[in-house]
């Protein structure tokens, strides 16, 4: 996908890992982390780490990199090819979703992208997590947390090292930010508390809607899509389906334990958003809920 040039003033980015936060960002409270994880590649039980992590310890991340200096957005974005790509994607996602919110008359707030690698990250609202947690969104601090080493693992899992697979990951997490701003996430958590038996089904709907939102973003920027992008995205969606992860871990396929949806469902959700280019088309996953 041909991402255009971006102005670092249009994005909120920081770099974390190891000793703590290097740049100040948004501060929130809460204990909920929504995760998109390829846990299989880390030798873990995927169903222990995929989905909602709600037992992390609350703490405030220290600010600074040990030198008394903060990293600017430009420095973070220039720190690696993955970081530069993620920053360009964030700028495009911000522009696309801000326009969508404005049309719908809903207040918009940009998320903060936090990039780290092969370490442990301490969030500002959802406690701490290791690299094994994979990419996740923290609604309490409106932060998208991505360990860029996950991209290497995703390439192995999906069989593609294409950029669109990586962009799908960040766009999916941005979809959770959209759900946070619209109140969808709050509604789902309340429904899960009222009806615990429907908790997994509702979580799957959340994840499929985030997949659909990722596709919608790409569809609205279809002039930047290159040959092979769709195939790369579908391969990534397939690789992190609950059934595929369970099968790869040598487990029995257990639909009742699904939290993100099957490979087929995830691919269909991504395609739905891309072809419709309409966020309202992504409401289908909550029909009848």
TrEMBL record:
KW Nucleotide-binding (keyword) present: no
Topology class, membrane: Single-pass membrane protein
Transmembrane parts of this sequence: 24-44
Keywords linked to the UniProt accession: Hydrolase, Membrane, Metalloprotease, Protease, Transmembrane, Transmembrane helix
Entry protein name: Zinc metalloprotease
Pfam family, one: Zn_peptidase
MF (Gene Ontology): metallopeptidase activity
GO CC, alphabetical: membrane
Gene Ontology biological process terms, A to Z: proteolysis
Region (Disordered): 1-20
């Amino acid at each position: 996908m041909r991402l255009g040039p971006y102005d670092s003033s249009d994005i909120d980015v920081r770099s974390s890992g190891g000793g703590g936060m290097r740049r100040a960002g948004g501060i929130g409270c809460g204990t909920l982390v929504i995760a998109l994880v390829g846990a299989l590649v880390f030798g873990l039980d995927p169903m222990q780490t995929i989905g909602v992590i709600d037992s992390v310890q609350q703490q405030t991340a220290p600010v600074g990199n040990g030198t008394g200096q903060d990293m600017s957005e430009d420095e973070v974005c220039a720190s690696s090819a993955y970081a530069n790509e993620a920053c360009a994607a964030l700028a495009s996602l911000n522009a696309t979703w801000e326009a969508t919110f404005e049309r719908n008359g809903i207040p918009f707030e940009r998320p903060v992208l936090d990039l780290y690698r092969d370490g442990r990250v301490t969030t500002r609202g959802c406690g701490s997590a290791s690299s094994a947690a994979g990419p996740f969104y923290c609604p309490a601090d409106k932060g998208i947390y991505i360990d860029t080493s996950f991209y290497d693992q995703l390439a192995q899992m999906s069989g593609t090292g294409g950029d669109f697979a990586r962009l799908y990951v960040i766009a999916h997490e941005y979809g959770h930010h959209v759900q946070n701003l619209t109140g969808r996430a709050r509604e789902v958590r309340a429904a899960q508390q009222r009806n615990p038996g429907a908790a997994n089904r509702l979580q799957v709907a959340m994840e499929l809607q985030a997949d659909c939102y990722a596709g919608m973003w790409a569809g609205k920027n279809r002039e930047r899509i290159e040959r092979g992008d769709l195939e790369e995205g579908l391969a990534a969606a397939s690789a992190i389906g609950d059934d595929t992860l369970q099968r790869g871990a040598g487990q029995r396929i257990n639909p009742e334990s699904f939290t993100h949806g099957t490979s087929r469902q995830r691919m269909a959700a991504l395609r739905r958003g891309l072809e419709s280019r309409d966020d309202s088309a992504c409401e289908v996953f909550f029909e009848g809920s």
